[in-house]
Amino acid sequence: MHELGVAEGVLDIVRAHVPPGRARDVRAVRVRIGDWSGVLADSLEFCFGAIVAGTPFASAALDLERVPALGRCSTCGHEFELDRPGAGCPMCLSALVSMSGGRELQVVSVELDEPEADR
Questions:
Q1: How many structural domains are present in the chain?
Q2: Mind listing the pLDDT tens digit for each residue in 1-19?
Q3: pTM of the model
Q4: Helix, strand, or coil here: 93?
């Protein structure tokens, strides 16, 4: 299950961008995940929850944004959602299709609560 390694990488990114004293304030980590990224969303959420349990980041949850697999036809320029590898263009039936989305795996943002002193 490589999702464990991906979850550890996401947490490493959060640690690198959140000051050490603010770890308990992390509420949500927003991640864009493409349908063809090779990562199972449910497994990633489970693994992330497991690695933050018992740490200062325990209150952090993943907020996953699905990115559909998109293809762009090189012949007619039509962009469409891909339902399978090697799919041709539904408009002109050309086989000259390149992938234009769906492989993303990106930490987009980290949401923090206000510090205790500001409440």
A1: 1
A2: 699 999 999 999 999 999 9
A3: 0.83
A4: coil
